[in-house]
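QUALITY CONTROL LOG
STEP: pairwise intake check
CHECKER ROLE: data steward
CRITERIA: each record must contain a sequence immediately followed by its structure tokens, with no blank fields

ENTRY 1 OF 2
RESULT FIELD BELOW
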Amino acid sequence: MKKIIRLTNHSAIEVGLTGGSDRPTIMLPIAKKSVYNQEAENLKLWGVDPELGKHFVEGLADTFQVLYFDYEGHLFQHPVDNLTVDHIVKDLLLIADEMNVKSFSYYGYSWLALIGLQLAIRTNRLESLVMGGFPPYNGPYQEMLIVTHKTHTQALNNQNEAAEKSSMETENPDEIDWDNIKVSMDTRVTAQFVALYESLTAFDDRSIHHLLSLPKLAFAGENDTIVYGENFGNVTVDIAGILKKNTTKLCDLGWDVEVLTGSQMDHTKAMQPAMVIPLIKPWFIKQL
């Protein structure tokens, strides 16, 4: 079943629900739509599954009911003026309500993982939580605020220049000079993520774990460390390092923690369905 739902800002998003209605539900806001032909070949250069959303849904729907949509893609098409955590949580709960899903588990990756953490402390409707590519303890919120602010500043500076294709569309990632890459994104899109991390400046993820009385899993690729150059604030976002450093603490707080191994297991590789489903599906099954 698919349905068009009006979100908090009145924009319309397509949401799908598949699998048996008598099964536990997993919310997948990471379900990007499939792409084909040259666009698919370009994504493959980056190690990105061009049918990522489809493979996640198919990989889980034989055992669970899956509530799926592409929230990030929607924000790129329909930017929100003030994208706060509260705004996003309202959107996700609205989607669940409109699809008649009362309780559900949640899987999110990267910034959508941190949204899962926010969702878990704001509602009792979550049955379990999986966070990939963003640590649930001592997360890099300040670093991401710097990176998103620098990205937005560059987008503002470049908005009057001739439109260029993004590097992901035109180049091999091994040939890109990341320190000198030009940001030519829509400034309304980049502003959203500045607002998101600004809304988290007072948030202390070390003090909220007593609110999380549900099964929870955190994972990352062992090489998920991004060193940003001067154009992006000279910061390091060390997802893997933070997760490894705090594994004992997280386990004491009731988290399961996994590090995906492999020399190429960076932020992008560790989000692909071929890597993630063999980890999260058995984990979700254990919670049944």
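ENTRY 2 OF 2
RESULT FIELD BELOW
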Amino acid sequence: MTTLHLRVGFMPLVDCALVVLAKDEGFAEAEGLNLELVREVSWSNLRDKLNVRLFDAAHMLGPAAIAATLGIGGVKAPMAVPMALNRDGAAITVSVRRFEELSRLAEGDMADTAVSARALAAMVARRKAAGLPPLTLAAVFGFSMHIYLLCEWLEKGGLRLGEDIRFEVVPPPQTVEALASGRIDGFCAGAPWNSAAVAAGVGAMVHASVDLRRDCHDKVLAWRADDVHRRPAAVAKLGAAILKASAWACRPENFARMAHHLSAPDRLALPAPLIERILHGELIQGAERPPRLIERFIRFDQEALRPEPDDADWVLAGMERAGQIVATPQMREIAAGVFLPASFEGILSASKVSPKK
């Protein structure tokens, strides 16, 4: 069998797990692939290198793939998604000082997203009355589910991101330092960076993404749109390797080894025990609170990998809520076309991984 070389870019997040496992557990090799993984420093780098074919495929934010395909955000780069890589797994974290302020202002249980949002609105009003600068919240990219979750949360308190609260883009690995330095007051990002901020003593987790939206669209395996049609064998082989990685990753007895792979210096470069706790859904919250156990905090199961065109509706609604677009019927059709469920079904039927019943 001829070995096919593929270069795949990724960002250091727990949700890059399936591409890492495809390489490190030999699933790609078994499909006749020589998989080269390249850690990137920002989502824009990842998008741009995929666009100019420095990468064959990429671990990508689903909304970023839609934005690039639509040509919003300054880059026109049509992409296609034959499979997703996860669902859920993000959280909103603020500095310990801001969390303590929120707790004092909260009228009710802070676990309630509406209660915490109203407390945040009260904090915003107090700061404005005192002549203090607005709070700053960050997300990892200009087009991401993290921004749209932040907007949904703030809306519960009558707040708008970019108006009542400043917004800044901070790549995932830089979020902890940005919080520690006081550059930002909080952020929404995928695991493990919320836990890393808590472990460093600089952050307190306010909400997991599942508190706002369960089974939320997140990362995808993106290809250039023309390559999905031009290179069907490559798409199928990598897809089959990721399906096998998914089946392996869903077994709790493999979590320790999975965390070990992800902890490597050229992967996430964080302690394996921190990552393993996240895989078990055991989240450290900070602010002297006990760990929180969330079942299926981050999903890698086969059903989570199915690309759903309906997810494009939520993404476009989020873009509208964030003031990024005014969606048109043509935009909706193009966005839905980024996700290719028929390609996923083809990969699934050709692979040796049995469909979940």
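INTAKE CHECK: passed for both entries
DESCRIPTIVE NOTE, ENTRY 2: The chain has two domains: 4-86+220-250+300-313+332-350, 90-212.
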